[in-house]
């Protein structure tokens, strides 16, 4: 019998030995996609949640940090800036540079902003304050606009730097360990 959560990247991929500075990201959605894929929590497979029907596309590779848990009952979301579109379920070592605080349907839904650690075109960025303003505007507008067309309210509150992002990552790791103690194995 296959145990519950077997091979599920949320539970059986580690967030990385250098967390919260560098984390392992599991990509669900490639940059440029209009498909909203989401991890099926039970099977570990990707599910097509919906197709964005607005004229927007994901401004970065989008996924989650494994072995994290947040107030919205999901793993911690992460955007990974990279010079290429990354295939779904690919693991990327991601350098955390900031966080976007967002309220989605009345719940906190923070998004970690990172750069691909092994992509020389972006890995020189060390803090969100170093990104061009238009990149931050694109990220903000993407989340505001695609939800608006679905008649859902999203409030992008603010962007903060890497120190605040590190705290968000650490808090989500702690919450995961509290909610899923059976997966608290440092060898994973």
UniProtKB/TrEMBL annotation:
An MF annotation (GO) of this entry: inorganic diphosphate phosphatase activity
Organism whose genome encodes this protein: Tetrahymena thermophila (strain SB210)
Alphabetic keyword roster: Cytoplasm, Hydrolase, Magnesium, Metal-binding
Family, similarity comment: Belongs to the PPase family.
UniProt keyword RNA-binding, yes or no: no
GO biological process, one term: phosphate-containing compound metabolic process
GO cellular component, one term: cytoplasm
Co-factor(s): Mg(2+)
Coiled coil location: none
SUPFAM superfamilies with a match to the protein in the record: Inorganic pyrophosphatase
Lineage: Eukaryota, Sar, Alveolata, Ciliophora, Intramacronucleata
EC number of this enzyme: 3.6.1.1
Classification via InterPro entries: Pyrophosphatase, Pyrophosphatase_sf
Keyword Transferase: no
Any single Pfam family the record assigns to this protein: Pyrophosphatase
Catalytic activity: diphosphate + H2O = 2 phosphate + H(+)
Descriptive protein name: Inorganic pyrophosphatase
């Amino acid at each position: 019998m296959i145990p519950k959560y077997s091979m599920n990247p949320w539970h059986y991929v580690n967030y990385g030995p250098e967390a919260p500075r560098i984390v392992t990201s599991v990509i669900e959605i490639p940059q440029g996609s209009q498909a909203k894929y989401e991890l099926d929590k039970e099977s570990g497979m990707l599910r097509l949640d919906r197709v964005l029907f607005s004229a927007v596309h994901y401004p970065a590779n989008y996924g989650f940090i494994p072995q994290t848990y947040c107030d919205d009952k999901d793993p911690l979301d992460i955007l990974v800036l990279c010079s290429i579109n990354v295939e779904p379920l690919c693991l990327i070592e991601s350098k955390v540079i900031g966080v976007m605080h967002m309220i989605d349907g009345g719940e906190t839904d923070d998004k970690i902003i990172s750069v691909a650690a092994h992509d020389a075109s972006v890995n020189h960025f060390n803090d969100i304050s170093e990104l061009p303003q238009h990149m931050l505007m694109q990220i903000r507008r993407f989340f505001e606009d695609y939800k608006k067309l679905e008649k859902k309210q999203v409030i992008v509150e603010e962007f903060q730097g890497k120190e605040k992002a590190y705290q968000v990552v650490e808090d989500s790791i702690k919450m995961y360990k509290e909610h899923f103690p059976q997966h608290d194995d440092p060898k994973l």
